[in-house]
Amino acid sequence: MRDYPDRMTPEQARAFGEDVLNIVSQIPRGRVTTYGHIALLAGWPSHARMVGRTLRYTPGAAELPCHRVVNKVGRTAPGWKRQRTLLEDEGVLFKANGHVDMERYLWEPEFIGEN
DNA sequence: AAATTGACGGTTA
DNA sequence: GTAACCGCCAATT
After folding, report:
1. For the domain bounded by A11-105, which CATH number is listed?
2. Along chain A (115 residues), what's the average pLDDT of each consecutive run of 10 residues?
3. Is any atom of nucleic acid chain B found less than 7 Å from the CB of residue A27?
4. Exposure pattern of A84-96 as b/e (b: 16+ CB <10 Å)?
5. What whole-number distance in Å separates Cα of residue A30 and Cα of residue A51?
C-alpha cells in the first residue's frame, strides 16, 4: 500500500507547475517558505524535489519571488549566490551558519477552500 | 530498459 | 555542528 501519490500524468504535471508558480507568487516580502510546504499545498506531498525543478527550469519563474523559497533548514539554493543578497535586501537575517533563521521568517501557506 | 541526476526531506551516527 | 546514507520522482543519459 503506497502512502504516497501515484505518478503524475502529463496533465497533472502541468497543473502542478501552475500551482507551484501561483503559490510562490504569494510569498510575502521579507518571508520565506520551503519546497516541501509548496509541494504539500499543491497536493503532492512527496514532490518537494519537483518544486525545485520547476523553479529552476521554468522560464518565467525568475519573474516571481522564487528567492523566497529555501530548503527545510533554511539553506539557499546551490549555486545561486545572489539569493542571499536578495533576501537580505528585504530584511531576512541569516544565522552564523549561513542559513535563514527559519524560526523568524518561515511563512506557512494555508489551505483555503480546498476539497 | 537501467542508471544517473538533482533549487528535497528524513534518519542515523 | 558534519556526513553518510535512504526514500522519493521527473528528466536525462
Report:
1. 1.10.10.10
2. 72 96 97 98 97 94 93 97 97 97 93 52
3. no
4. beebeeeebeeee
5. 21
Give me the CA A10–C1' B8 separation in Å, rounded.
21
d(CA A72, CA A34) in angstroms, rounded, equals: 6
Question: In this structure, is the CB of residue A20 within 7 Å of any atom belonging to strand C?
Answer: no
User: What are the φ and ψ backbone dihedral angles of A31, each rounded to 5 degrees?
Assistant: -125, 165
Enumerate the domain spans of chain A. 11-105
In total, chain A counts a number of residues equal to 115
In a 3-state reduction of DSSP, which class is residue A73?
Answer: coil
Per the listing, cell 529555501 goes with A70
